[in-house]
TrEMBL record:
This is Glycosyl transferase. InterPro entries: Bact_transf. The keyword Transferase applies. PANTHER family: COLANIC BIOSYNTHESIS UDP-GLUCOSE LIPID CARRIER TRANSFERASE, SLL5057 PROTEIN. The chain crosses the membrane at residues 47-73. The lineage of its organism: Bacteria, Pseudomonadati, Chlorobiota, Chlorobiia, Chlorobiales.
Amino acid sequence: MELDPTVRKELIEKISETISPAAQRHRAMRVYVWEATVRLSYRLKRLLDITVSVAATILLMPVFLITAAAIWIENPGPVLFAQTRVGRNGRHFRFFKFRSMVVNADCMKDQLAAMNESAAGVIFKMKKDPRITKVGRIIRKLSIDELPQLLNVLKGDMSLVGPRPPLPREVAEYTLEERKRLHVMPGITCLWQVSGRSDIPFNEQVLLDMQYIQSSSITNDIALLLRTVPAVLTGRGAY
């Protein structure tokens, strides 16, 4: 039986009165240190995001320009693809990628729904998706299509490291356990991205995301960024 709020408050006050002033100060200090540590970790993570994103954008500018030209030459139209994704705590934002599919790809997706190769059915994956262009297959294999998300990181919608941001219709099918992925800032790379990418079933992706959330730290983020480089070069699970 749930206690009345007034009764609960009185009980808390009585218990608090039995705690010595020294113990109260010690407890308050522990809470303060914990909160300060959390704030510092968030600021360090944000500093890492901004520093790496700015440096990467400058160094990779030739890749941006060559990719944009190649996309337009093969299939004239917008070189960037903007899509609504779900970020931290369910907030929607505009998510950017280099366009790797034909211009009317979204209109064709319903026709291909029955060919979804994702066992869980929550996400759509198809190794030989006919909507993907020739340039698109190359930039997907090398993860070049993800580079415009550096803009999302600079805007504060995403982090360099974190669970991949899902589509709203995917979130609608999430269980309560799966929604825990939305408790942190989404990222460009994550634990399952460096462990097999799309070859990993959705339920295992969720487990790896939860593992990352529970052990999140700056050192782990740096380690994942370093692991992303060989994962991108091998292209395993990228399609």
